[in-house]
Amino acid sequence: MRALRILLVVLAILAGIFVIIDRIAVNIVEGEAADRLRATENLATTPDVSIKGFPFLTQFAGGTLDEVEVGIEDYEAGTGGGAEKIRIAGLRADLHGVDFSSDFGSAVADSATGTATIAYGELLKTAKSAPTRVAPGVTARVVGLSDGGNGKIKVAVEATVLGTKLPQPVAVLSSVTVVDGDTVRVKADAVPEFGGVRIVESGVRDITDFEQGIDGLPGGIRLDKVEAARDGVEITVKGSDVRLAG
């Protein structure tokens, strides 16, 4: 019995040492992976990388990580061409089946899902903010975007009719959707009137409806869904064969 107790104590100590070594190892690898991702994606700050699952060392030995969470606070994505960028806040990605090389020079995930937020001020950059003629004697421009409730965007349109600016912007509820995995589309549910003046629909939609291209997301992930929220549009992203390095 005494020998058995000694054996159990030794096993408990060894198990504790293994857990400590395992956690130290995962912390080192998370830091290395974060540095590699920052360099690969040319990020301004180091992202958060969290490797899930226990034990880590068995995953490491096999060259495949079951699940890795990546968080990037601020990411500048492309806008479909040119030098213009759009800032994405709180980009979070959950990667599954991450195969990596021994020196972390390459890392590819079988699949990825995640979320991100684009502030209304960022999305507003692509809307027509300069006064635009929508009908004889009527000009209009978009002056603000906000949460309209029920997944809608409220588009505030300032209008001038026969030289007189309307006292309050006209509020237009709009639907927001993803097109082709790389574009956010904002489209008015109904065409408004300005100062009681009915305007041809196509003229109004030149102002109220717009699209924002978003590309160059980390690892080639793409837009999946989008919905208006309090602080901006919340985007769901997804991808397969997502390359994080190499």
UniProtKB/TrEMBL annotation:
A Pfam entry, by short name: LmeA
Highest taxon in the source lineage: Bacteria
InterPro entries in alphabetical order: DUF2993
Name the UniProt record assigns to this protein: DUF2993 domain-containing protein
Species in which this protein is naturally found: Streptomyces haneummycinicus
